Amino acid sequence: MAAEIPVGVGLARLVAWSPDDGRVAGLVRQVCARTLSLPAAPCEVAVDEPESEAERAVAEFAEQFSADVSQISAEQRSGLLEQLGDSAFGAVVSIFIADFVPRVRAGLEALGIGSEYLGWARGPIRWNHAATEGPGVLFNDFLPAVARMRALDPVTSELVRLRGAAAHNCRLCKSLREGTALDAGGSDTLYDDVERFETSILLDDCAKAALRYTDALIWTPAHLAVDVAAEVRSRFSEAEAIELTFDIMRNASNKIAVSLGADEPRVEQGTERYLIGADGQTVFG
């Protein structure tokens, strides 16, 4: 069994992934940053504008991915696949990194915590050009490492997951319910209020603070209100607030499936229960 890596190490390895000649990673990091109005994740090769039909397809896809992944059109999807073929999936992983690393940085900086996770923003980076490295690090190392974090209570984690699922319109995520959260007091009655959480009488102030922060990182990360960040810091410990930030990124990996039209629900009706294993991997049945 491979050694489990910490969240910070996984994040740094994602930032350092610059496959092939680095042009696609450099292009999407600039496109996503402009879309989000945030500083770009570091890039080995700064590519401000596309120079080929393939790069134009990637840039258009990346812009919509960052702005609202649920609105990626069939034409944008087919255009990406037609131009990139088998390398399309790796490009979409690059886009996810370009899209969400700046959001995490903005969130942690607004909260005034987690500087140990942002070392890549301050020092030299040893770039990794292996074409398969990014997806492996993301799905086998980084996302499970986030799932292994246990500071935040499971019901809050599930509320945040469902808010992200609705924002990105991930059919798969909306069809699932995490078992530990259900055992800790979660229910569909409670979860139904996520859609209208501001007026909910079932969700407490901590849950509402977490959901406001979730919305801010998803929709307005460049304008993260001071009072939103301050409320999170006042209601959650430092470890909980860091986990909350990374939970939002982990949940947002659903954007990869949504963007490629691969987010089919696991059940046709109702929902399916699942668990997060000790290794951070999802366990069904």
Automatic annotation (TrEMBL):
UniProt-recorded name of the protein: Carboxymuconolactone decarboxylase family protein
Superkingdom of source: Bacteria
Organismal lineage: Bacteria, Bacillati, Actinomycetota, Actinomycetes, Mycobacteriales
Originating organism: Mycobacterium gastri
